[in-house]
Design goal:
By secondary structure, this protein is of the alpha+beta class. The protein is about 40% helix and about 20% strand. Strand 2 (about 35) and strand 3 form a beta hairpin.
Length: about 290
């Protein structure tokens, strides 16, 4: 077996069943335990090239060695019911500058396992530099995913059109999410698919998902959806797209959106770099 490429941080969350499996492997293989170093740790293993720490929270941090990865693959619960698991998330909704990005990520059971071992998890818990490294690793694996990237100029036009029709931001979000989801569904062959969407407006999202085969597709709208690996992966890719787009806008207009305020920017530029319905932007639009 080829060695899994090491990236940082090498961590994943395990559930109670997987923890039970791990304890059995530790006893079976007589793996050497070492003393824990804090009250938050449940156990530590250091035995040759096998090194990992399990925390009481369920987080497991490992050294990425081939031997360690083999153990983790053995104890991890395998997905056997669904052909693909899709996750959808967005970023940029709360930022006055830059685009709105909605991404749908599709993972088969093997990819799901691999992404867990890569350290894919809730993007809110990952520092920007590490997040970008993980995003690059995800892209190199060539999973099936699609994003809707609404740059400010497009976003502002669509938002205005939605408002004229009496529709709100959640309906624009629902459009972006479901457009990405439907794109991905067209690209895969399946009998059973589960879609997890980071919940924001259940009713509006379901309305936009009309036309999908409900006999084959299960849709779950879940708060804190990034606890699901496909949603976490989608979020990481969406944030990478957001950061890349902001870099492009900064370069094009010779500004720094991350540090400047709307009042520091030429009002004629704002519609092209900012979401103009935001209060702190709107008052500077002439």
């Amino acid at each position: 077996m080829s060695k899994v490429k090491k990236i940082f941080p090498r961590s994943l969350s395990i559930n109670i069943d997987e923890l039970g499996n791990l304890k059995k492997v530790i006893l079976r293989d007589r793996l050497q335990r070492v003393p824990v170093t804090s009250e938050y740790e449940l156990l530590r293993i250091k035995d040759g090239d096998i090194t990992f720490t399990v925390y009481k929270s369920g987080k497991l941090v490992h050294n990425g060695s081939e031997q360690t990865v083999n153990i983790l693959k053995e104890i991890m619960k395998k997905e056997t019911f669904f052909d693909y698991l899709l996750g959808s998330d967005e970023t940029g909704k709360g930022e006055w500058y830059g685009p709105l990005v909605a991404t749908c990520m599709s993972l088969n059971p093997d990819e799901l396992e691999e992404f867990r071992l890569m350290g894919v998890r809730d993007s809110k818990s990952i520092k920007k530099d590490v997040l970008l490294k993980i995003a690059d690793e995800i892209i190199k694996k060539k999973p099936i995913y699609r994003s809707r990237i609404l740059m400010p100029e497009t976003y502002n036009k669509m938002y205005a059109e939605f408002q004229k029709e009496g529709r709100n931001l959640n309906e624009l979000l629902a459009w972006a999410h479901t457009a990405s989801i439907k794109d991905v569904l067209k690209m895969i062959k399946y009998e059973r698919v589960k879609i997890v969407i980071d919940k924001f407006d259940v009713e509006k999202t379901y309305e936009r998902l009309t036309g999908i085969d409900k006999n084959k597709v299960e849709v779950i709208q879940k708060s804190k959806g990034e606890t699901e690996i496909p949603v976490a992966a989608a979020s990481i890719i969406a944030k990478r797209a957001f950061e890349t787009s902001v870099d492009e806008l900064n370069k094009k207009y010779q500004i720094n959106l991350r540090s400047q305020r709307p009042e520091d920017i030429d009002p004629s530029i704002l519609p092209f770099v900012a979401k103009i319905h935001f209060r702190n932007v709107k008052k500077y639009i002439h």
